[in-house]
UniProtKB/TrEMBL annotation:
UniProt KW keywords: Acyltransferase, Cytoplasm, Iron, Metal-binding, Transferase, tRNA processing
Gene: tsaD
Cofactor: Fe(2+)
Binding of substrate, residues: 140-144, 173, 186, 190, 286
Catalytic activity: L-threonylcarbamoyladenylate + adenosine(37) in tRNA = N(6)-L-threonylcarbamoyladenosine(37) in tRNA + AMP + H(+)
Species of origin: Plantimonas leprariae
GO biological process, one term: tRNA threonylcarbamoyladenosine modification
Principal location class: cytoplasm
Coiled coil segments of this chain: none
Job description of the protein: Required for the formation of a threonylcarbamoyl group on adenosine at position 37 (t(6)A37) in tRNAs that read codons beginning with adenine. Is involved in the transfer of the threonylcarbamoyl moiety of threonylcarbamoyl-AMP (TC-AMP) to the N6 group of A37, together with TsaE and TsaB. TsaD likely plays a direct catalytic role in this reaction.
Localization annotation: Cytoplasm
Protein name: tRNA N6-adenosine threonylcarbamoyltransferase
EC number of this enzyme: 2.3.1.234
Highest taxon, organism lineage: Bacteria
């Protein structure tokens, strides 16, 4: 057994993933393998993730994915120090597949088990990719979550803001569906927006100027629907313009919230030598949003850390890495650790 070799398993939504992460002699975390099987095609016909299909697809794929991750890393189960599996939040059936598999491997090999919160995996990713030191500010924007989190230390997370209705990725996905674009919506909206005029439709910037750091996107989604109805029948040109207008409104809304959060961050931690805002979650892939965030960070004297896209969206390396940090901190779980479909950070 090697001290810091962790197998991570992720099955909270529609990605079946396994990875092996360790710590290099110089202290940096090291990804030895990171295998992700996306179920996107199995859900595409339904315009969204179908929980039952997701759980069954995880059952079919996971053993092979875990095997592939171990082979790619060049390690055997007996080399591992512990097994980490996402135990929430997420789809209950999907979570059970990953957590039970992780527990079975741990039980059969006498290894410790780590029940990792999926959001913690995302929140610690900038430490995996860029070695960012605590504390830092995190914008997590995915299909299920939109949160501003102060990451203060392992297990010490302060949620400064969250969405009061839809998640940002969800707003992208619903906009795509409304405009007849395929699932997943985010990348397709961004692709269409590239050819559109963002000034064509006047859409709201939800929460702009609000003192609290929360987000809201359902009003924007409704405004998109109303604009689409008013412009019907929609030609491709209209769709591109509406995508561009929506993306700009979403990006400016996020930038306004982040601007406030950065001001608070700078006030609460005036002595930080290298203040960092890190992004994670699939929406962090969006170029328009990244551009606005970079501008806000530059203005506030904060470094923007945007991990590579493969590590921003759902993957198991982030779960193995969160498991590694927890393991080193002695935060091991029992085999009776429950899966928690709802599990705030
Ligand atoms: O983190 P993620 O892979 O999965 C979870 O939701 O946990 O995020 C997926 C979300 C989807 O809503 C997807 O539409 C959105 O991220 N997304 C994007 C882009 N790429 C993915 N949204 C906007 N622009 C993109 N380029
Ligand atoms: Zn995620």
């Amino acid at each position: 057994m090697r001290d810091s070799l962790i197998l991570g398993i992720e099955t909270s939504c529609d990605e079946t993933a396994a990875a092996v992460v360790t710590r290099a002699p110089d202290g940096r975390p090291l990804i030895l393998s990171n295998v992700v099987f996306s179920q996107v095609e199995e859900h595409a016909a339904f315009g969204g993730v179908v929980p039952e299909i997701a759980a069954r697809a995880h059952v079919e794929a996971l053993d092979g994915i875990v095997g592939a991750a171990l082979i790619e890393a060049g390690v055997a189960i007996c080399d591992l120090a512990a097994v980490a599996a996402t135990s929430g939040p997420g789809l209950v059936g999907a979570l059970i597949v990953g957590a039970m598999t992780g527990k079975a491997i741990a039980a059969a090999s006498g290894l410790p088990f780590l029940a990792v919160n999926h959001l913690e995996g995302h929140a610690l990713t900038p430490r995996l990719t860029d070695g960012v030191a605590y504390p830092y500010l995190m914008l997590l924007a995915s299909g299920g979550h939109t949160q501003l989190i102060l990451v203060n230390g392992i297990g010490d997370y302060r949620r400064w803001g969250t969405t009061i209705d839809d998640a940002l990725g969800e707003a992208f996905d619903k906009t795509a569906k409304l405009l007849g674009l395929p699932h997943p919506g985010g990348p397709n909206v961004e692709r269409m927006a590239a050819a559109g005029d963002p000034a064509r439709f006047l859409l709201p910037r939800p929460m702009r100027g609000e003192a609290r750091l929360d987000f809201s996107f359902s009003g924007l989604k409704t405004a998109v629907r109303q604009a689409a109805e008013a412009a019907a029948p929609m030609r491709e040109r209209h769709v591109a313009d509406l995508c561009a207008s929506f993306q700009l409104a979403a990006a400016e809304s996020v930038a306004d919230r982040v601007k406030r959060a950065l001001a608070r961050f700078r006030t609460e931690f005036p002595a930080l030598v290298d203040p960092v805002l890190a992004v994670a979650g699939g929406v962090a892939a969006n170029g328009a949003i990244r551009g606005k965030l970079k501008a806000e960070c530059d203005r506030a004297g904060v470094r923007l850390v945007a991990p590579p896209l493969a590590l921003c969206s759902d993957n198991a390396a982030m779960i193995a890495h969160a498991g590694l940090e927890r393991f080193e901190a002695g935060l091991v779980d029992g085999l009776d650790a429950p899966v928690r479909p709802r599990w705030p950070l």
